[in-house]
Design goal:
Number of strands: 9
Shape: elongated
Largest sheet: 3 strands, antiparallel
Strand order of the largest sheet: 2-1-5
Strand content: 5-15%
CATH architecture of the largest domain: Up-down Bundle
Number of domains: 2
Structural class: mainly alpha
GO biological process, one term: cell surface receptor signaling pathway
Order of helices and strands: EEEEEHHHHEEHEEHHHH
Keywords: Calcium, Cell membrane, Disulfide bond, EGF-like domain, Glycoprotein, Membrane, Repeat, Signal, Transmembrane, Transmembrane helix
Distance between the termini: 74 Å
CATH class of the largest domain: Mainly Alpha
InterPro entries: GAIN_B (IPR057244), GAIN_dom_sf (IPR046338), GPCR_2-like_7TM (IPR017981), GPCR_2_secretin-like (IPR000832), GPS (IPR000203)
Family: Belongs to the G-protein coupled receptor 2 family. Adhesion G-protein coupled receptor (ADGR) subfamily.
GO molecular function: G protein-coupled receptor activity
Radius of gyration: 24 Å
Length: 329
């Protein structure tokens, strides 16, 4: 049950509710104001009440697991001192943080369509933080490329080919530029408030997300492919071979992350564009697996993380023991 809002030039459900519906013939509405009314129908019949509920459960449970895994990964990357100083894990931390914020907004705010201003803000921030996550994935691919090809030595200001601020400029500057251009060029019309708080498909604004994502995935795969090729051709001593083996694990983890993020949003575009139930389930499940995948790849099966985490834990326990002994004196 909706009415035509002449101010926003859109259908709105504010002040209207469904009183009674008959699947075969009619729907009775009640509104607290006078204007032009209509009943909007889902002609595809993909989101009936009996199917929406299981999808909601899957979304809530899956996203909660993903959010928990991302939070735990960020805590580990920040708490362990050796990881905190390693720029590789600075990249991981930024990627996880942006993906975490985007997942939270997706979970709690994407359906907040009753308040158009709030919905618009949520759509803009979801757009921004998901772009940031993909941009930091690009930073990871770029950093790996420089690491394998050894174009420069490491120092505090110049981290393998680029200065640290330049990596941050890529990670946050590119998304800021894309969102700013999208807002400036369309005067907020790029963002839809119905049926979801997201980019509009009708005016092609979705390409403000799909375009950069496709470009990032392509560039990342090129960087990683070149890095693998160079690494295979290089001749190194025993110590460097050990480092090479570690780098390969990191490369394969990054390639896997690129694919899972990319495939997830292929189905995301199909879901938001067509409203198909099957695409909704696939997108929800894949999106829920992202945080779990990152935690397993970069924490659980990463030997350096496990080793440094164990050392940090033992060190903290020893410090607590001696502090306790000192207090007892």
């Amino acid at each position: 049950c909706v009415f035509w809002d002449t101010w926003t030039q859109e259908w709105s459900s504010d002040g209207c509710e469904v009183v009674e519906t008959n699947d075969k013939s009619s729907t009775r509405c009640r509104c607290n104001h006078l204007t032009n009314f209509a009943v909007l129908m889902d002609i595809n019949g993909v989101f009936k009440e009996k199917t929406t509920s299981p999808l909601d459960y899957i979304t809530a449970i899956g996203e909660s697991i993903s959010i928990a895994c991302l939070t735990l990964a960020i805590i580990i990357f920040y708490w362990v001192r050796t990881l905190r100083r390693d720029f590789r894990f600075v990249i991981h931390r930024n990627l996880c943080a942006n993906l975490l914020i985007a997942e939270i907004l997706l979970l709690v705010g994407m359906d907040a369509t009753t308040n158009s201003d709030l919905c618009l803000s949520i759509a803009v921030f979801i757009h921004f933080f998901f772009l940031c996550a993909f941009s930091w994935m690009l930073v990871e691919g770029l950093y790996l490329y420089f690491l394998i090809t050894k174009v420069s030595t490491i120092d505090v200001r110049n981290i393998l080919g680029l200065k640290q601020w330049q990596y941050y400029a890529i990670g946050y500057g590119l998304p800021t530029l894309v969102v700013a251009i999208t807002l400036g060029a369309t005067n907020t019309n790029a963002y839809s408030t119905s049926p979801y708080c997201w980019l509009s498909y009708e005016n092609g604004a979705i390409w403000a997300f799909a375009g950069p994502v496709a470009a990032i995935i392509f560039i990342n795969l090129v960087f990683l492919t070149v890095a693998i090729s160079v690494s295979f051709k290089s001749r190194r001593n025993a110590a460097e071979k050990k480092e090479k083996k570690h780098n390969f694990r990191w490369i394969y983890g990054t390639i896997s992350l690129t694919f899972i993020l990319g495939i997830t949003w292929v189905f995301g575009f199909l879901f938001f564009g067509q409203g198909s139930l099957i695409f909704a389930y696939i997108f929800t499940i894949l999106n829920s697996l992202q945080g779990l995948f990152i935690f397993i790849t970069f924490c659980v099966i990463n030997k350096k993380v496990r080793k440094d985490l164990r050392r940090q834990f033992i060190t903290s326990q020893v410090c607590q023991y001696f502090n306790f002994r000192y207090l007892l004196r």
